[in-house]
Amino acid sequence: MTPQATTPAYRRLSVEERRSQLLAAALSLFAHRAPEDVSLDDVAEAAGVSRPLVYRYFPGGKQQLYEAALGSAAEELRQCFDETRQGPPLSRLSRVLDRYLTFVDEHDTGFSALLQGGSVVETSRTTAIVDGVRRAAAEHIYSHLGISDPGPRLRMTVRMWITAVEAASLIWLDEDKQPPVDELRDWLVEQFVAVLTVTAARDPQTAALVGALGEDDRD
Amino acid sequence: MTPQATTPAYRRLSVEERRSQLLAAALSLFAHRAPEDVSLDDVAEAAGVSRPLVYRYFPGGKQQLYEAALGSAAEELRQCFDETRQGPPLSRLSRVLDRYLTFVDEHDTGFSALLQGGSVVETSRTTAIVDGVRRAAAEHIYSHLGISDPGPRLRMTVRMWITAVEAASLIWLDEDKQPPVDELRDWLVEQFVAVLTVTAARDPQTAALVGALGEDDRD
Hints:
2 copies of one chain form a homodimer. By secondary structure, chain A is mainly alpha-helical. The first copy, chain A, has 11 helices and no strands. Chain A folds into 2 domains: 3-62, Homeodomain-like (Arc Repressor Mutant, subunit A, Orthogonal Bundle); 70-217, Tetracycline Repressor, domain 2. Chain A has helices at 3-10, 15-32, 40-47, 51-57, 61-81, 89-106, 108-116, 124-144, 152-174, 181-200, 204-217. The mean pLDDT of chain A is 90. Chains A and B meet through helix 8, helix 9 and helix 10 of A and helix 8, helix 9 and helix 10 of B.
């Protein structure tokens, strides 16, 4: 659909619909270009509206649009973490990683720009959004492992693994999405088990967990 | 020594000495406070000089001082990676980690502020400095492992582990430097072996390496 073709429908959008449309246009641009390479004109053109209309909805301009698009991407990512409590925990982790890696694949340039840092649009607010997603990932992991009160060694292990997964995602994007996504996913699950096993030798809580993981996987 | 006490000596410093003195003062402040909490007046006071003198050496003000101090900290960190080629590689890694963790301990607040991102002083230049240190760390690891041409799976594993070490350092600072530094160091070495072992099942280069590591450690 060209911008012209959307014009007849455009006056009929509600405020909320218009806002969502602009946000979707911004997110699709920020997903595939560095923030420096996206202008308000680009967003206006992608949404088939005028630049003043974009400003009416986002008076803070590009920074505000970027943060709103990031918030919306973060929400999408949190939804990737939703997983039923069915089957062995490692199979659940594998399914979550599948969805996460699909997200990374679909937001490649924006994902790299965001996590590599040093961008002009990075602020304490954008950092807080990203940290919120990391915390949500850790909480989902504890919850699926049936742990309500993770001790410091288990928490450090889980957070280190989450950071390592982010690093792997960035390298994967940098290396033309090699190795194939299925191999990357299995490898990350194996690393999760390996680092938990190392921690198990120093921490009874993790040791109990690793024992239970093994039993689940023999089902 | 109070600022007053340094005044008599101060005119006798060469340009290079004065610059080093200001940089040292800046680094000691940026090491223990968030960049937002360090002013040029603080640097002038710590160095026992006037604010205009600081500006004469660093006309770019706080941003320039921050980047210079960061460059100097990065150099210090690279020196931590220097290690003779004596003894088993894992013992060498352990000694490097000892020095690295001492550096983290001595630059706690600044280290956290830098790596947590979202700071106003973070730019593509500061990001490039940090990435340079990460690359140097990886190169040292390959060199000590006797590998001149690391393949993609080994490179990804090493870079993931380096990122996980950074994450562990931040969490360690956040958790009042617990667990004790010796335990953290040993745990990180064990994790290095564990993730390499996982990769070994997928990559012949890493498999050969893990075999050789085991032999070295039986020496």
